[in-house]
């Protein structure tokens, strides 16, 4: 499959969980914590479920809580996508 | 705080309305006085295969405008409507929750259907595509307390929170419970209720009562107390109220729409027991609780089921308490349909507006009272008169009866009441 990038994460966040009024997702969000961007664990869970549906990459719950920033999520998914 | 302010009836200082015939208090009130109905063809899905195809829909509501972007995807439409109405009520009251003690602010709403539309969508995904396609927010969106919880989180209100589910009686029960919380030292309570179950799953559940009108003409489908009554039209929406401790309200010279002077709830006996319906007893108990006599009541907001037998029972209860045609009775819900968890809350809001503006809004569509409904029903045109005390009645499917007494707020000695000219 194609690798995902930060714009994919932006789209998934918007579609799954909306955007906090005080946040601009088009900023450089790569290394910002999801919690800092206004997303709780349910929001991240929703996004990882959609990644599995769209890209076929499963993000186990034990790993999900370590993926605290958009760039960590992208790197995890792309590593799995290559080895899958 | 003195003992006097703790026991004085709490005061409604903010009103937020999301109704089929008006979004916002001003739009709703002008439509209601003008007799403009929000009942029309159901458009939220294709109802072609259903026996009932009319509804009171909140048509102009745009969740993207009314609900924060983060909250909209994780909540049902009923919660969207509740969040919008709560924000209106808080704004109307002039309250800044961020500046108040968070544990002294409580939230109690009524819900009848929960997040039915959201739940249906996710259940469809479950059976058609599998568990992994069910959204994570299903876990928090569809249960009854979701609206209360989201209001509490959004406004930082961490006092006692709860939800009451007693179908159409729920709005009054929530307000009654809010009064209890104020007695237990809450400073303010966001209360009332909304509902939105105009989806196939929701409508199918409602049809099981056998009480929904199957008539196609929006002007003849919901005719409570009429000789031609044939059931009711379902609707969505409701009202949220900001209830404040009397001392807190007068202390900041807030506008008081009215006070919650009395409340009572009863339960019907088993259907075949031969016992009397409990509505009359609820009304008597609420009047006694408020310390008012029937002749003090200026208007009764009826439950107005639109089902002949239930209409006769309600008319009998009102007549037994007040005498035949002895008190004005109205049911503006003929313009919205029955809103379930939001219905009685909207009736209470409407009664408060009647008190505030000294006018009784009309009942529409009804032409000829049924035999056994010997009521002074306010028909067609509003009736301009002082309204110092209103009795609101509600019945919920399954045997719930509730009654609420609302009274005009006495001007405070220092002139804190602002009179009747603001809207």
Automatic annotation (TrEMBL), chain A:
The keyword Protein biosynthesis does not apply. It comes from the Bacteria. InterPro entries: ACP-like_sf, PKS_PP-bd, PP-bd_ACP, Ppantetheine_attach_site. Keywords: Phosphopantetheine, Phosphoprotein. The keyword Transcription regulation does not apply. Residues 3-81 form the Carrier domain. This is Actinorhodin polyketide synthase acyl carrier protein. It comes from Asanoa iriomotensis.
TrEMBL record, chain B:
InterPro entries: Beta-ketoacyl_synthase (IPR000794), Ketoacyl_synth_C (IPR014031), Ketoacyl_synth_N (IPR014030), PKS_Beta-ketoAc_synthase_dom (IPR020841), Thiolase-like (IPR016039). The keyword Metal-binding does not apply. Pfam families: ketoacyl-synt, Ketoacyl-synt_C. Keywords: Acyltransferase, Transferase. Residues 7-408 form the Ketosynthase family 3 (KS3) domain. The keyword Phosphoprotein does not apply. It comes from the Bacteria. Coiled coil: none annotated. Belongs to the thiolase-like superfamily. Beta-ketoacyl-ACP synthases family. This is Actinorhodin polyketide putative beta-ketoacyl synthase 2. It comes from Asanoa iriomotensis.
